[in-house]
Amino acid sequence: MDFLGFVPNFFKKFIVNNLEENSQIYFDLHIHTNYSDSGLTVEKMSDFLRDKTYLISITDHNQIKGGIALKKMGINVIPGIELGCDDGFELLVYFNDFETLIEFYDLYVFPHLHPKRMARTTKDAEYYFEILEKYECFISIPHISGFAQKNFLKNKKYIQKAIEKADAIEIYNHHLPKQKNLVAFKIQEKNSKQMTFGSDAHSEREILSYYRYINEKYNRLKTIFDFFYKVKVIGDIGYKHAQYSLKKK
Fold first, then answer.
1. Burial 182-217 (b: 16+ CB within 10 A, else e)
2. How many CB atoms lie within 10 A of CB 47?
3. Pairing mode, if any, of strands 25-31 and 90-95?
4. Most CB within 10 Å of its CB: which of 86, 189, 196, 211?
C-alpha cells in the first residue's frame, strides 16, 4: 500500500529522510505506549525504528509522556495525543511542536482527566473542538466505524458535525477488518477529508504486523498468528484499564 503518496501536507515537515515512493518505510500515526494502556515500551519502539525509515506519532490516551520520552531518545516523533471525551468519542490531535502540545495538555487535558476511565476526560467533543481552534493543529477521527462504543457512526448523534470540524478521517486502522476500514474510506471520500493511517498498536507484535502490511510482506500464516495474538492484547488492554480505574478509586 502506498501510504506515502497520501501523507497530508501537515506531516511532511516532519519527514527528515529521503523517502522514496516505494521505499520500505514505517509510517504510523496512531501508536500507544505503556504510558497509557499499551504494553509497548518506548525502549522497544526505539529499537524497532533504529534501522528503518519512518514517520510516526505516539498518540497515547490522554497522555503525552511516551512521545516526549521518545523525542528525548533522539526519535523524530510527531507530537500527538488521542484525546478522549466524556462520552467515549475520541480524536487524534497532532501539533507542530512538543512545547505547544505540552501547553495544551497542561491547560485542557490534565485538569479534566476522568477519575476512573483512562481513555476519557470529563469534557465533551464540542469543548475540545472549540479549544483546538486556538491552535495550529491537525485533527483526525480514528476508527470511525469501529466496534461497540468505537463505532462513532452509530452511537454519536453529532458525528457529522464532528466530521465537518475535523481535518481528516483515519481510513486504515490495523486493528479493524477490511470492511470497517472500507466504510471509513467512503466517509472520508464523501466528505472530502484528508486521510490518516495507523496501527493503533498496543504491543511490539502489532508494530511488526503493521510494518509487514504496509510494506506488502504479509501472508496468510502470519495473519492467523496475529489474530490470536490480538486476542491476548485485548485482554491486556482491559487489565490496564481496570488497574487505572481501581487506582483512581
1. ebbbebbeeeebbbbbbbbbbbbbbbbbbbebbbee
2. 11
3. unpaired
4. 196
DSSP characters over 112-148: GB-SS-TT-BSS-HHHHHHHHTTS-EEEEE-STT-SG
Residues 160-178 pLDDT 10s: 999 999 999 999 999 999 9
pLDDT digits (tens, 9 = 90+) for 45-102: 999 998 888 999 999 999 999 999 999 999 999 999 999 999 999 999 999 999 999 9
> pTM to 2 decimals?
0.86
Of the candidates 17, 5, 151, 137, which has an alpha carbon nearest to the alpha carbon of residue 76? 17
In CATH terms, 4-248 corresponds, of 3.40.50.2000, 3.60.110.10, 3.20.20.140, 3.40.50.1000, to 3.20.20.140
Helices (H), the chain: 9-12, 42-49, 65-72, 98-104, 125-132, 152-155, 159-165, 178-190, 204-214, 220-248
